[in-house]
Design brief:
A nine-stranded mixed β-sheet has the order 1-2-3-5-4-6-7-8-9, with helices on both faces. Helix 3 (144-157) crosses helix 4, helix 6 (231-238) packs antiparallel against helix 8 and helix 8 (264-283) crosses helix 9 (299-313). The chain has helices at residues 19-32, 136-139, 144-157, 171-182, 200-207, 231-238, 249-257, 264-283, 299-313, 329-332, 355-367, 387-399, 406-419, 432-435, and strands at 39-43, 60-67, 75-82, 87-92, 113-118, 164-169, 187-193, 342-347, 373-378. It folds into two domains: 2-8 and 18-200 and 327-435, Rossmann fold, CATH 3.40.50; 206-319, no CATH class. The protein is globular, with a radius of gyration of 21 Å. By secondary structure, the protein is α/β, with parallel strands linked by helices. The longest helix is centred in the middle third of the chain and has 20 residues, at 264-283.
Length: 440
């Protein structure tokens, strides 16, 4: 979810990796990477320097913009790190709306992996941006199915023909799961952190809490929720929501974001709500975080992250190809993941995406017959920067079995697709045979 990215996004700096590495990379690029006609721009900027005492990110390869498939205005920004001939990993960022960051490449051995980061529609360096006064273009043609199609288009553009590792955190775990359900034959491994299933209960745990009762009794406890652990940050958040909208906070936020601001006062109000939404998430994202320090996020980032987040949450994440806040889509279709190794890392004290979501996913996978499930509970909150979570994710990536050659992986992918349930072009539109062996 986007607040977790607040402390992680920063302006890029420079890092010199040396003439020998650049020469080697150029040589590999010349022989390995295809000529890509649809890449409308390619940059060769350098990566962000790592903070003190933290391992640096893998070497930067290149970046560009991809024209989104179909008749769409969207242009998807992407970056590559690591080895051009390495095992492909695609990283699904959180939010939705948080955007990608080069720090996400830090989990991967640059000698082994080819890491692809991309900004989902409407956020980061993708265009149009949800930070514009009129966010309608950024939110049009912006659903989970569109994001899944973008991943498929990126595979084609970047010549990823066989299987790939899918690495997703928070909302990125949701998107990674939805992508794997739609295209299981293209996924070598699922690596998920901070599992988010995007059911109504999961969203209400974080955003609803005691908001409806707050005016009468700020300490009311009508349901479980993150508000119980962060009462001061929760008060700052609820205070910006009109009392008449607190019976359904997500609906109230959608109301606040539904129209472009027409006056300076309306824009100021819009920024206030967006900033409160993102700050609330940021306050609850780490195990050790002073909830009294509620500095305001960058306005552009707050507008982008909050608008896209609410656009998805009010529509149940568009899972199953429809707007259904009461969906149970991922668990209902988890049988499609039974042949994919899955690694889950979840903080025991995660109050953005509660641990019960990871528990539900793990039990469903095992009940569906997936015998390649690895589940790690860390002494941590939600953020990937929590030390134990960070270490566990690096260890998983270092210890994954090596992938087979691209040629063999491509053959295996085709074989899996022939034996797996046939995926539909639209998420969730599976035939009866596809669902017959799923969970109740």
């Amino acid at each position: 979810m986007p607040g977790a990215r607040l402390a992680e996004r920063q302006d890029g700096g420079g890092r010199d990796f040396g003439v020998s590495w650049l020469a080697s990379a150029c040589s590999q690029l010349a022989t390995y990477l295809p000529s890509v006609a649809e890449i409308t721009s390619v940059d060769a900027s350098t990566q962000t320097a790592a903070p003190n005492n933290e391992p640096s990110n893998p070497p930067f390869i290149r970046s560009g913009h991809l024209a989104a498939p179909g008749f769409s205005e969207h242009r998807i920004y992407w970056e590559e790190y690591g080895s051009p001939a390495g095992e492909p990993v695609i990283v699904m960022h959180g939010g939705p709306g948080a955007g990608s960051h080069s720090s996400s490449a830090r989990f991967f051995n640059p000698q082994r992996y080819r890491v692809v980061l991309f900004d989902q529609r409407g956020c980061g360096k993708s265009t149009p941006s949800a930070s514009d006064d009129d966010a309608t273009p950024a939110l049009t043609d912006n659903t989970t199915q569109h994001l899944i199609d973008d991943v498929s288009a990126l595979r084609d553009e970047l010549n990823i023909n066989g299987k790939m590792h899918v690495f997703g955190a928070s909302w990125g775990s949701t998107l990674g799961l939805a992508y794997a359900i739609a295209h299981p034959g293209t996924v070598q491994t699922l690596i998920l952190r901070g599992v988010f299933l995007c059911r109504r209960a999961d969203v209400d745990y974080f955003f609803q809490g005691n908001a409806a009762e707050f005016a009468a009794d700020p300490l009311a406890m009508p349901m479980p929720g993150a508000y119980l652990d962060f009462p001061t940050a929760w008060r700052h958040f609820v205070d910006v929501i009109p009392p008449e909208d607190r019976g359904d906070v997500v609906k109230g936020l959608a109301k606040a974001f539904c129209a472009p601001p027409r006056t300076d006062a309306e824009r100021e109000r819009l920024v206030q709500v967006a900033s409160a939404c993102v700050s609330w998430e940021g306050s609850a994202s780490r195990l050790n975080r002073d909830e009294n320090s509620h500095g305001q996020p960058n306005q552009k980032y707050a507008l982008t992250a909050a608008r896209i987040l609410v656009h998805y949450m009010i529509n149940g994440g568009f899972l199953g190809g429809e707007a259904n806040r009461d969906n149970n889509y991922i668990l209902d279709h988890v049988v499609r993941l039974r042949d994919i190794p899955v690694h889950v890392v979840h903080g025991r004290y995660d109050r953005v995406c509660h641990l019960y979501q990871a528990e539900a996913l793990m039990r469903a996978l095992r009940d569906a017959g997936n015998n390649a499930v690895n589940y790690f509970i860390t002494t941590a909150g939600h953020s990937s920067f929590e030390p134990e979570t960070d270490t566990r994710l690096r260890t998983i990536m270092n210890e994954l079995p090596p992938m087979t050659s691209p040629e063999t992986a491509l053959l295996q992918s085709g074989e899996m697709m022939r034996h797996a349930e046939k995926p539909s072009d639209a998420v969730g539109n599976f035939g009866d045979d596809d669902v017959g062996s799923g969970l109740e």
